Amino acid sequence: MYETNKRLPRLRMEAVRMVRSGSGVREVARHFGYSPGAVSKWIRRADMLPSNASRIPTCSSRPHHHSHELAPEVVARILSLRKERNQCAELLRHRLGEEGIHISLSSIKRTLSRHGVSRFSPLKKWHQYPPRPVAERPGILVEIDTVHDGDLRERLGLYTLIDV
What we know:
Layout: H1 8-20, H2 25-32, H3 36-47, H4 72-85, H5 89-98, H6 105-114, E1 142-149, E2 156-163
């Protein structure tokens, strides 16, 4: 649990001073209302601070890295293969698989995008859609949907008209 109590850093150091002055860890933990493990952790953290420190700061509980992130060697290999021939992500995935590195296509695309080496295909056609009409009164904007079920000879068709 992440604490927002502003007095807690000083309380931690006070607990450490009590242990160093001869009190037991369990006794100090009971006195302050924390677990003995927490007090032991505070003692270890206090040992890393300068001797004149008056508080033990609250550390962030945010993880240092994602548990499923790609290894730096794999990222470096993806980028080196891309630099070598400027190939698409699909070919990079195939080449990595031949080297024994099995990775998803989306991970390769994400890595290329993160490092600014992805590009858009010149063959892809970008569409500009017309603006959606405004329904000023009932009956002006109607949405039509169709669902077909069954084989070709006995197909059932359901048509829906929705007045938006």
